[in-house]
């Protein structure tokens, strides 16, 4: 199996972003950064504290409408990512065409998400049932097996998220339905899990560092000019903007990695 080249994807992404920045950044800012920033501003302090340090026995009450706002934000971000993938995978396409294509393919992406959630829920329910049955025999055994099953479920979800990292490019670049999109995204990442994991970890670490630094510096300057609340808002905006820049490069790189995997798939099929 041919090796997936992160370096080649980076070189192609840099060249593409430099050439098409005027198309890419407005899409990401409008459909990714802005919804995320609005949701962040809507999040109550107690929920923000819980997200930073989640505890199963101390889940704060969710304000009415916040769950709907979170769901809408996720859908908008997915729509924005599909639009950016359309721009990255189809050179010459206009933003309007990319938006229409993304809107047409959103039901498939939502369907894949629903199917994955149902599969995960099935695994969790099965694990809970095993734990309940074992608890009738021994509380100690049930606690031990429950911890093992919980860890196994978490590892399974993590592994599946890596194997499906090319799902969005598959959805936007084909006319496949829900199950076929999932099958193909899974197949395209076969043999590339560790490379993709390293790539995603580096991107997440870089995004966290630069966004935090931008939020801190701009927040301090904004605090001196507009007071604590103004500084906090300025820092949040700066952090979101910097994160958006990183996300543009990450998504374009994923588009190039998808094209590499697609080419390898074609070569293997021809043999």
UniProtKB/TrEMBL annotation:
UniProt xrefs under InterPro entries: DUF7847
Domain DUF7847: 4-260
Superkingdom to which the source organism belongs: Bacteria
One Pfam family from the record: DUF7847
Keywords linked to the UniProt accession: Membrane, Transmembrane, Transmembrane helix
Keyword Manganese found: no
Ranges annotated as spanning the membrane: 21-39, 66-87, 108-137, 143-172, 193-221, 233-252
Name of the protein this chain belongs to: Glycerophosphoryl diester phosphodiesterase membrane domain-containing protein
Species for this entry: Sphingobium olei
